[in-house]
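Appendix B, record 7
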Amino acid sequence: MSKKQLICIVGPTAIGKTSLSIRLASHFKTGIISADSRQFFREMSIGTAAPTAEELAAAPHHFIHHRSIEEDYSVGDFERDSIEKLQGLFKSHDRVILVGGSGLYLDAITKGLDHFPEVDPAIRESLNERLEKTGIGSLQEELKTRDPEYFSAVDQQNPHRLIRALEICIGTGKPYSSFRKENFSKRFFESVFIGLTAPREVVYDRINQRVDKMMEEGLLEEAKQLYPHRELNSLNTVGYKELFRYLEEAITLEQAIDEIKKNTRRFAKRQFTWFKKNEQIKWFDYTTPAEEIITYLENQKDQSS
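Structure tokens (predicted):
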């Protein structure tokens, strides 16, 4: 008997992963696991492009708005919770859909987390002090020098990720990427990867249109409600941090919207970089009919039986 199958829908932001995942979940009569780390938090809806009420009602979703921005929720917590959830879902389903653009969180489910050596805590303290004194730029430059491979994939605007990588680089004298796991955790399911892609200019145009739609749907009002909590790590993310700067009168609203579009395009570029390294992904143009992808998946299942 073949293993249970986790169908992973990946690709850059705004490419159409949500609609495809719902179509597949409906066909296979199964549920959807979200691996989008920004959609975990219930207070963040418009700015994270979370599924709408209608989309959530179209198929069972898990890990959407299940946490508060005031709760600490790490990728390790997600790995533990998602594997537990899958153990339950696979008791009654042969297939489950996984969707998301957060490569690290997707890898946590399909491969397991990397394990790194302990380093002197003073290194992190020093890096945090440098962040406060000189800003994020110096951390970006040092990581780019010490570990260009990881620098090309990491969220370069996330100081927590930069500091974590740098403390390993400094503490061990080796690149952070050299410790990335090679012998992945054995899973009780088979992972099949479906990637949606499009020419870069198409992706960028879809991103720009999505940001405009978010603004029309009330993203600024959502940011105003979250502004008192702006120091939380969960809110240090594209779509909110730019509007927080506008609310602080550091930039105009037009500049904030332009920054959201620019930073989202940069994020999409990093997603391309991350996913292109996975040779298991079967890529489809974003306009491919769902029926064609379903046929491919059913053939894959037959071959593995």
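Remarks on this record: The radius of gyration is 20 Å. Strands lie at 4-10, 32-34, 61-62, 95-99, 189-197, 281-285.
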